[in-house]
Amino acid sequence: MPTKRMEEAINDQINFEIFSANIYLSMVSYFESQGLPGFANWMRAQYKEEIFHAMKMFDYVLEAGGRATLTAIDAPPQDWDSPLAAFENALAHEKIVTGRINNLMEVAQEEKDHACQIFLQWFVSEQMEEEATVSDIVNKLKLVSDGGALFMLDRDLATRVFTEPAA
Ligand code: FEO
Description:
Elements (H helix, E strand, L loop, with lengths): L3 H30 L3 H27 L19 H28 L3 H30 L3 H11 L10
Helix pairs in contact: 1-2, 1-3, 2-5, 3-4
The site of MU-OXO-diiron has 7 residues, from helix 1, helix 2 and helix 3.
């Protein structure tokens, strides 16, 4: 059973993962409005991934004998100045998430919750991957100088499929 402090910290992150999901879902709508279905597809997969993160934590709290609690979620932004601005927002957001996961790990260490430390290890690795992937797209977008290159990148991003990782 997690300590009260541990339970509250994970619950806070469950709600932040849902907030993350909503940001990316809002970006799906933005990219569709810009005529970029490949970018929208990529963000739809990202939305699913964030819901998966939230559910992974939700199920962990329940399995550990705690209580998962949902709170009000802030409204996500609705518009961005450009595809690059949206992906820069995504990268900045993922860096915040990484900081939050690291803080969670510190709470687990302070609470001497070894099971939770093992559980959080997956998220530590996942955040490295998340930042690297988004950063790669930001860099590609910085190189895009005309509509043709944006179209090619859109075609690229159209291929992303979210597959739930094996347990
Ligand atoms: Fe759930 Fe993108 O971190």
